[in-house]
Write a structure and sequence with these properties.
By secondary structure, this protein is α/β, with parallel strands linked by helices. The protein has a single domain, classed as Rossmann fold. It contains six helices and eleven strands. Strands 7-6-5-8-9-11-10 form a seven-stranded mixed beta sheet, with helices on both faces. A two-stranded antiparallel sheet has the order 1-2. A two-stranded antiparallel sheet has the order 3-4. Strand 6, helix 3 (106-118) and strand 7 (125-129) form a beta-alpha-beta unit. The structure holds S-adenosylmethionine. S-adenosylmethionine binds next to helix 2 and strand 6.
Length: 231
């Protein structure tokens, strides 16, 4: 804090991210004892509370990568939207018709609404509180050009639901997975095989033009992004 004068609070992450809401325990180390802040990236501002919601600045490159793929007037469904980071970067940097943004955490939903105001993306980012499977089944079937699944722990289970949100003409699914890989294995090949096996079993016509390591999450553990084009 002496060297970096802009730092007001230091917190120690005291547990891994866990549970349905993907939260972590935090211990106050120095400075003001608070857990909320405003994070800025690519001209967007995100009000976050790291004790009550998931947030990671390490996904900023990935958020912009997805936004740069969105074509004008697309309908996007973000199945695990948190405080709205992916959705807001898309709304500000692409020109989508709508980004339906679902999260099951009421605290994340409240911050998402604040972030919609902060970034002036009313009517573009539509916040929806609840389980994404239930919301898609009840009101978002066959509407989307693109579906985001930024929750590796549930992505495989929720893949059939993501498919049901896509338009009958097809579209894109951005799948996020976690893989353990030894030095002789390729995490990108492992995740691609897992997704392909599931889609084959569901009888889907698809291709996977791109897979990347987003970040490492522990020794030999990797978070991966898989872009699936459904025909
Ligand atoms: C890893 S976070 C991703 C958050 C956000 N996309 C981001 O990059 O900041 C996963 C989010 O999914 C939410 N979640 C977990 N299960 C869910 C479900 N069944 N339906 C909707 N949201 C869910 C959690 O509350 C959490 O905010």
């Amino acid at each position: 804090m002496r060297r970096h004068r802009n730092i007001k609070t230091v917190l120690l992450q005291a547990s891994p991210v866990s549970g349905e809401l993907r939260l972590r325990s935090l211990t106050h180390v120095a400075g003001e004892n608070k857990t909320s802040a405003v994070h800025k990236e690519f001209g967007c501002a995100f009000s976050v509370d790291v004790a009550e919601c998931y947030f990671s600045p390490r996904l900023s490159h990935e958020r912009m990568r997805i936004a740069s793929m969105v074509e004008p007037n697309e309908t996007v469904v973000n199945m695990f939207a948190g405080v709205g980071c992916f959705s807001i970067v898309i709304a500000k940097h692409a020109n989508p018709a709508k980004v339906f943004s679902i999260d099951v955490n009421p605290a994340a939903m409240q911050l998402m609404q604040e972030n919609i105001r902060l970034n002036m993306v009313y009517g573009k980012v539509i916040p929806l509180l609840g389980d994404s499977k239930e919301i898609i089944n009840s009101r978002l079937q066959w509407v989307a050009d693109r579906v985001l699944m930024p929750l590796p722990e549930k992505a495989l289970e929720y893949l059939p639901c993501a498919l049901s949100a896509l338009k009958a003409s097809g579209g894109w699914i951005h799948y996020y997975g976690l893989e353990h890989s030894t030095k002789t294995e390729s995490p990108t090949e492992k995740v691609k095989l897992k997704v392909a096996e599931k889609l084959d079993a569901l009888g889907v016509d698809f291709e996977v033009p791109f897979v990347r390591v987003v970040r490492s999450t522990g020794p030999n553990w990797f978070q991966l992004a898989v872009d699936v084009h459904v025909m």
